[in-house]
## 1
Amino acid sequence: MGAGATGLGVAWDLMLRGVAVIVVDQGDLAHGTSGRFHGLLHSGARYVLTDAVAAGQCQAENLCLRRIAGPYIEDTGGLFAAPPEVPDRLIDQWKQGCRAVNIPVAESVVVKGLNSRWNRVFSVNDGVINGYPLLQALARGIEEGGGRVLTHTRLVGAAEANGKIRKVILESAEGTQELAVDAVVNAAGPWAGEVAALWGDPLPLTLSRGVMVLFSHRQQPQVINRLDMPGDGDILVPHDHISIWGTTDRETALPEAPPPDYQEVIELMERGQEMFPDMGQWRVLRAFTGVRPLYRAPGSGSASTRDISRDFVVVEHPLSGAFSVIGGKWTTFRLMAQQVADRVAGYLHYSTPCQTQSHPLPPRLESFDSSGLAEPFLCECERVSTRQLQQYSGGSLSDLRTRTWFGMGPCQGTFCGHRVAAWQSLRVGVEQSDQELLNFRSERERGMLSALWGDNAVEWLLQRNIRFQGLGEPTK
Ligand SMILES: Cc1cc2nc3c(=O)[nH]c(=O)nc-3n(C[C@H](O)[C@H](O)[C@H](O)COP(=O)(O)OP(=O)(O)OC[C@H]3O[C@@H](n4cnc5c(N)ncnc54)[C@H](O)[C@@H]3O)c2cc1C
């Protein structure tokens, strides 16, 4: 269950061991937290002061992902910069912690634009994960290996016989279906508690939301981290031509990512200006939120969300054949998948060992070079042509957005939203494509509305006027 990094990772691992797999997700690939993260391939240096195990796992998996998933990793390197109030004692402790888990650290030069008082800077081997293409590659690899990936299909029930899980009940636009199974892995991220409750064993999950701000430019070539105890607003990650700044940690009630809270975004920006004094002038595209599932281990009492470990746990439920995996990081998804798959393969009596440490991921799909083609780009900001859209049959406008990246650039879909909706209407009819355009607009607006200040607010008004007065879009 779950087509995020963990669920697809588990299915990929089991498939390589010869197990027949089906991945099910209520949304498209990366519908959950895997599509709403910072994008950092952790070196582990962020965790050495608080969680040496997680730090060591991140460093080992960082090296492993560079080996097996090279086309999906950008080797940016990372820097840790210490604010002046951080004592030398803590910096030494941090360096020792890095050494203990083999994170290469070197004193580095001061970064342009960084607060000039933050003059102790160290380099580490952080990187950047291109999450969506990586998950698309896993899904493609699973299908090419004989597995299936069912998107927009929700698990709503399970049936057992003699204490073993035997069936799952799935709902999709086509109706309800039952699927015979020998084992089920609940990799439902923040929904994992709800899913486990379907077989009567709810999990002690605490959910925590984190908000991130997306800037329209790549502000720095490397990842920049605050060297201190982990806290709010301490990582700036470059992605292609943009940057993501985050994040926060607030307990939240529901697994669906809520709209970013305006006050939380403002606090995050204030914190950012301690690090980069001119951050308030950087052009913002939007803010977004992701939700972490945290496993509150029995006996951990009322620890705050920041104090709950970012490690992961694998749970074997009293109902035989039902497994859950909770927590962890994107960076450690392969390791999490390996540990779950070991348990499932053992349960199913498959003896083939894990292959994923050395088996490369399927290659990246070539992006189309439309320069020599007669057809124009539908999305000029992200250079998406009709040919790219045509690769994805059956997706809604929102699915096409995450699969091709249309609408993600500076105009946030002002122009290309209409063009792609017109193209989509030829496939699904005008009524449905109009509805999909409304959904697309409300998703884009929710991220822009929480970052409205200064020139961003002026630009947002301009975009609305273009849409409503220039392009004749209905105002509701
Ligand atoms: C704000 C934030 C920033 C982060 N930044 C980083 C980072 O920079 N680097 C890093 O390494 N990690 C980061 N993480 C952690 C990382 O994003 C997560 O560990 C990872 O994405 C979890 O993936 P997952 O597959 O376990 O869960 P998810 O991606 O949430 O996948 C669960 C899937 O299950 C599906 N599902 C749920 N219920 C059902 C159902 N009933 N039927 C069918 N499908 C269902 C959902 O639709 C969803 O797609 C961050 C997390 C947060 C919250």
## 2
Amino acid sequence: MSTFDDQIRDLEDEIRKTKINKATEGHVGKIKAKIAKLKRTQQEKILGSSGGGGYGYDVKKSGDSSVALIGLPSVGKSTLLNKLCDKEISTVGAYAFTTLEAIPGTMFYDGATIQIIDLPGIISGASKGKGKGKRVLGVARSADLILIVADVYKTERHLEIIENELFHVGIRMNQEPPKIVIEKTKSGGIAIATLKTLTNITEKTIKAILTEYRVINANVTIRSDITIDQLIDSLEGNRVYINAFYVINKIDLIDEEEKDKLLSTYQNSLDISAEANINIPKLRDRIMDNLKIIKVYLRPHGGVTDFEEPLILRKGVDIGEVCDKLHRNFRSEFRFARVWGTSAKHPGQKVSITHTLHDEDVLTIVRSAR
Ligand SMILES: Nc1nc2c(ncn2[C@@H]2O[C@H](COP(=O)(O)OP(=O)(O)OP(=O)(O)O)[C@@H](O)[C@H]2O)c(=O)[nH]1
Ligand SMILES: [Mg+2]
């Protein structure tokens, strides 16, 4: 019997040999769905054989957000953790596989506390169970941001390997989740409602892929211009959508010319030296930008604004969520709020519980008397 890898390779070859056009699109969609299903079964087999080790290290979440450091061995992840957290937390070694488990530290930034997690180095094949790969990637799946750390001399190979491993465990980097809702029905076939023009996939292909997943009767609502891969992702489930960027370390070892070349090749990257302390403040800023965190200052009704201890919130948060964070009764007691800052039409605008806050807003919540 051929192995999963053989079957997957054969199907991938078939896609490569097929010229994709309207006539062949449905067929390609079906093959891609078959590949995704095989990969899932393969992954389940690997996880099932993990000997009760579970998926991921047991890292207790702390702080306002968490950031995972992922990379091959010896790229400088532990050195970086210590720099970001300004403390000697994780052991650094000149040999591969110095770090053997997940080591969390805390980075303080402008009133926010960010958990940074140093991880063992991973190698190609990690997602298929090589080394401690599965557990490392499990931590990455639950992080709010991933830093892919690479060595300046082996950047291309490192980034390729890590991206591939992240992809295989269902991590979709820097992608919005596709807006697809599939509601199974008892009869009537497949009805597709699209609220955006689809330029990457035809309705026929959507139906072919759904059939491959044994979805025969369903109402499908699509609100973004999805691709074949995104449809399969949403049928497979178990995908996580996480921001990530590249950190190219040991920049102290190369000259300006080499550095320029490297940076023009990798747009979504930052060059640093953890050991020689180059660009660490820049990296801290970049982490905060990517975490999409905002600060909101509270002003008690009729009082003065507390600029000392801002609330640390996620971008896109509404006032209702702020109420929930403050006290379990606040939502039910909410009457109205006033907002100063860029989310307000004018200073002190009176707003409802569904109002979305911006960074640096000042907020007053007015509650009914108990
Ligand atoms: N030249 C230079 N060396 C560095 C830099 N950062 C780390 N190193 C060295 O690289 C080696 C590996 O550093 P670690 O921080 O232990 O690397 P790691 O990625 O945690 O390694 P594993 O835990 O084995 O996966 C050590 O000898 C460090 O001193 C850097 O910015 N420049
Ligand atoms: Mg280490």
## 3
Amino acid sequence: MIERCTVCVIPASFPGVTFDNRGVCSICQKFEAQKEYIPSSALLKHRLLEIIDEARSKKLKYDAVTAFSGGKDSTFLLYILKKEYHLNMLAVTLDNGFMSEHSFKNMRIVLDHLDIDHLIIKPCSGLMKEIFRECIISDIYPEHLTNYGSAICISCIRMVNNMCLRTAIEKNIPLVMLGNSPGQLIQSENEIIYQDNKIPYPLRKRLFKSLADKIGENVYYYLMLGQKEYKTEPFPYIINPYPLIGYNEEEIYRTIDKLGWKKPDDVDPHSTNCRLNSLGIVVHKERLNFHPYDYEMSMLVRLGILSRDQALRRVEDSEGKALELAKEIRGEIMS
Ligand SMILES: [Zn+2]
């Protein structure tokens, strides 16, 4: 009986996965046959530089909105974009009401150090709680999303992307930079540089219909743009630079340490900024019987970014502290 792939860490409970007689999963087999993670990597790198040059040539107040959670990945991204790509950035933070207090301290220290303007968007907490509550008590997203993350994180990430995009449109900023790790980019290389105005409006709305039915039409504003906003010309580019610029956790920690960033002590060991993370994990495992990080961590193993043992440690049973925190936050949300 296979529990996890012998190469990566994908568990047998992951939807649709099969194993060969060596215990290697179908995702690893497909990855191996495909050989390259990003077939047109060289082209995309060139395209990234082109888009950045074009943005900078406009001499606008800001070249890019950068989603900034205060976590390690977005902190390092800000640093690289400022120091190596010389972008004028507006750091945008979505405060979901459950951010670690320590993480705000990190944000201030890092942004002071890098001399970057900061915009914090904080939606009313009642609505945020209602959204997260629905993520706990019902299945609101389809499998093609929940395979790659918890419903709580999906909701939050959608809001972050949407608020960054809206800010870019309102302030006439040509680029939106996101700090997803290479393992979080899932479907295809089209997720590295794209303009998110191609999906038909009714189709996009359908994704959040179940939430809207339960909580009210008001949620659409936070999760997607309005019809008119999608028609903005020129439409901002969304860029996930990590697969192109390289992702190395040791380098990330080493660099942000020099910026004064400290690992928060008020979150679970697997998050560097959000107190909701552990609850997202617990609920996901209860409802779907696999870890919301299984896919991401297994991809990081395939890419040689993490060893299989390192990845295993991140997807195996949570420590007491994380479970305690999850329990506490569940109480807060359900009350
Ligand atoms: Zn595998």
## 4
Amino acid sequence: MTTLSGKTALVTGASRGIGRASALALAKAGAQVLVHYGRGAKEAEAVVAEIRKAGGRAHAIAADLSQPDGPHKLAHGVRAIVGDRLDILVANAGASKAAAIEDYTVEDFDRLFAVNVRAPFFLVQQLLPILHEGSSIILLSSLAAHAVVGTLSAYAATKGAVDALVKHFAFALGIRGIRVNAVAPGVVQTDMSNFTKTDAGRDYTLGMQALKRLAMPDDIGSVVGFLASDSARWITGDTVHVDGGSKL
Ligand SMILES: NC(=O)c1ccc[n+]([C@@H]2O[C@H](COP(=O)([O-])OP(=O)(O)OC[C@H]3O[C@@H](n4cnc5c(N)ncnc54)[C@H](OP(=O)(O)O)[C@@H]3O)[C@@H](O)[C@H]2O)c1
């Protein structure tokens, strides 16, 4: 499948988990992929090597997205590699914390909003000059934005903000032919949701899903690949639930 042949893509947080699976899906469809990472240089290089081994094009690129100027630095680095044309932006990098309301600190709250909301906002802003008619932006929302899952109140609020951004971005950028959507995964087996490794976590997750298996990162990556493609050309401003029928 080479539906994205000739396209350039940036996936943030592609060193692990859902970002990694999204980067691999986009590369498999023919896109050149910039594999962004924060701390996981080795992991990101391994993703790049995997893409190249399969005949694709990829580069690793670092930026700390918890810093106010992180998105600006990342956009600068992206432009140095792809020049003046970016077709696909997957703002996937995210942080989470499970805690009771009483136990969240101001630092926790600010860090979650910095990585999950401020960074995607300013990354879109900084990359706007190289996005164009036909470009696709995909943000990462969550089941937690619209249903109670565990003790994730501040994290869930960041994902509610992402859903709001999707609509405002989609309306503002539609005139330029740029589509903006989010995917909202349920619980996916990654480092972020490592509670699924316990029997209790697994039972809780399967109990709230219609489909009775645990989600893997590529269950989400394939939908990211679809939203990036021309098959999704009439979808914008939407948050697509990719959660095996969670909390129906
Ligand atoms: N897993 C789930 O159940 C689930 C459910 C719903 C939504 N989501 C969302 O899906 C996205 C990916 O989640 P995941 O489960 O794949 O997470 P993960 O396995 O914990 O990976 C997080 C990724 O984000 C990057 N990242 C985190 N903080 C960063 C920072 N300050 N600067 C730069 N990069 C940073 C990490 O990079 P390094 O490791 O290189 O630092 C890593 O690549 C997130 O937005 C998450 O909220 C996940």
